[in-house]
Amino acid sequence: MFFALADVHRRGMLDRLSRGPASVSELAEPLGIALPSAVKHLAVLEAGGFVVSRKVGRVRTYKAESRALDAMEAWVTKRKMLLNAQFDRLDAYLAGHKGKAAT
Fold first, then answer.
1. According to the 3-state scheme, what is the secondary structure of 29-66?
2. CATH architecture of 2-64
C-alpha cells in the first residue's frame, strides 16, 4: 500500500479520483504523462486496492476505493498506540529513576 502511494503521479491520480471517476486519459493529461505510463501507475493503484476500474467499450474508467485508505489508517493508528505505550513506559521508568537519583 505504501509503495502505491510512494509515487507523485499516483498520488495525483488519487487526488483527481477523490472528485469522481475518470478515464485513463483524464488522469494522464493533467499530470503530463503518456497513456502507457498512466496505465502502469493505475495498475499499481489497483493492485494496492486504492482504485477499481470498469471498462465500457474502449474506455476504462477508474474510481477511488476508500477501503484501502481505511486499512492504512487502521495500521497507522495501531502503530501510533504501540509507540505511545512505549513512551508511557519510558516516562514511568525515567520518573522512577529520577526519584532514586535525588535520594
1. HHHCCCHHHHHHHHHHHHHCCCEEEEEECCEEEEEECH
2. Orthogonal Bundle (1.10)
